[in-house]
Amino acid sequence: MNRSFAVENEARVRPQSAELELLVDAGPGADEDELERLARSLRTELLELDVEAVEPVSAGPAPDDARAIEALVLGALIVKVGRTSEALTTLVRTVRGWLGDGDRKVRIELDGDVLEVSGVSTEEQQRLVDAWIESHARA
Fold it and tell me: What are the distances in angstroms from CA 121 to CA 8, 93, 97?
């Protein structure tokens, strides 16, 4: 089999990856510890999906007087996942389920396009979510 044909064929079968930035909004009155705890909890749940990676967002090097190697953006995650309707739908559905019925929200950004997800879904919200997913899926 021709090597270039195999590579080209593999690229068609494997979906292009999407890199999404998720930002947890813990609601009014939440402190940094709560935000960090929620982001870790969401990360754990997302790692159970068919994703390539879920990592905290780095804000660059930590200040000289800090113990950490890098400063992190509290409540922010980068998720690498296949750019398909199925993968994006599963991710959004998982985020919604994780949110529950509280005041929390998760802001999802992909290619500069933002989707804010809450635990409560209306028909209009679902229509907007579906449109957002379809605009970014390359299946």
Answer: 40, 11, 11
Amino acid present at 56: P
- Backbone φ, ψ for residue 90 (5° rounding): -60, -40
The model's pTM is 0.77
Angle at 36 between CA 30 and CA 41, to 5 degrees: 105
**Per-residue exposure over 113-137, b if at least 16 CB sit within 10 Å of its own CB, e if not:** eebebbbeeeeeeeeebeebbeebb
Residue 6 in domain:
no
In a domain, 31, yes or no: yes
pLDDT digits 0-9 by tens, 51-76: 999 999 876 565 566 555 444 578 89
| CATH number, domain containing residue 126 | 3.30.70
Determine the Cα–Cα distance for residues 38 and 46; give it in Å rounded to an integer: 12
The 10 Å Cβ neighbour count of residue 109 is: 14
